[in-house]
Amino acid sequence: MPYFNILNYIQLELIKRQRRGELSTDEEKLIHTTINGIATGLRNSG
């Protein structure tokens, strides 16, 4: 599960930056990518 920690950290940093209005459109898409990555990983690990 160490990959989840990395994805979670990236997700938190992106959300913080989004709330401050500092994200580009491409970076906002990364938030959804991290959500999908964590969901897929959890689904595959049970």
TrEMBL record:
Q: Which UniProt keywords apply?
A: Lyase, Pyruvate
Q: Which GO terms are recorded in the biological process aspect for this UniProt protein? A: carbon fixation; tricarboxylic acid cycle
Please give the function described in this protein's UniProt entry: Forms oxaloacetate, a four-carbon dicarboxylic acid source for the tricarboxylic acid cycle.
Return the protein name: Phosphoenolpyruvate carboxylase
Molecular function terms from GO: phosphoenolpyruvate carboxylase activity
Q: Which Pfam families match?
A: PEPcase
* Source taxonomy: Bacteria, Bacillati, Bacillota, Bacilli, Lactobacillales
